[in-house]
Amino acid sequence: MKISKLFTKLAVIGLVSTGAVSSATAVHATTTVNVAAPNGNPAYIVNTDNGPEGYYGELIKKIDQDLPQYKFKTTFTSQNAVFSGLQSSKYDVALNNSWYNKQRFQTYYHTRAVGLDDLRLVYNKSGKKASSLDDVAKKNLKLVPVSTDDARYSVLEDYNKSHSKKLNLKAIGDQSSADALAQVANGKYDVALYPYAAYKQVANSKNGKKLTVSKSIDQRSAYLLLHKDAKNKKLTRALNKEIKKLYDNGYLEKLTKKYLYENTFALPGAKKNYNAEFNK
């Protein structure tokens, strides 16, 4: 009798212990988030032996640290593959500095803005000058082709939709900013549209020394895009809460100064332009 009671007592303890372990496991369970990033732009995102680096590399590590319920796994791939993978659900999040685009905001979930870009026109010091997109259109300057998957394409396309004098806009496949700006330096094209950080990365190179930039012509907020499903709807809410915290406590401004060669949050109009399209 005593032995049977002992076994019963041990069995109860075992059930309690098992329940405790299961409960603990549930508390510490994590959801893997598959993140896609285009490689080769050190200011924004680049693959290193220490994982992703640059503005978004440091940001995603910070988010991974602050949201223990998620494990963010970053895969580097081409720009085109980022979006095809995001649409097919191969990836949950695109880490590629996406500006507002009506179709994309309808196709994917989007977070609050994770950064603010300063747009400039880059041209050859000894070539034709441009201080605005109006200049580019009116002077019929040859514009470096842009990938249709690149956020800059939408900016240029929107300009053409709202102006009678059009930009000479051509599409192209994936191309690095260094290669594109080299084409301006060697005279193949007259001008390129890029965030200031893209120019600064090549400014001291052989080709970069032939180039200069206009003053700021626009500012664009950058958002994270997510594949639409129930899991990522919940993830989007968690990311929005985290991103707001990182903006309010100055972390995004710190990253901007560290990687983007200037404090875009201090530019005229920055408060109005940051997160401007979030509710669209």
UniProtKB/TrEMBL annotation:
Keyword Signal: yes
Pfam family, one: SBP_bac_3
Ranges where the Solute-binding protein family 3/N-terminal domain occurs: 32-263
Signal peptide positions (record): 1-29
InterPro entries, sorted: Solute-binding_3/MltF_N
SMART domains referenced in this protein's UniProt entry, alphabetically: PBPb (SM00062)
Swiss-Prot/TrEMBL keywords: Signal
Name of the protein described by the UniProt record: Transporter substrate-binding domain-containing protein
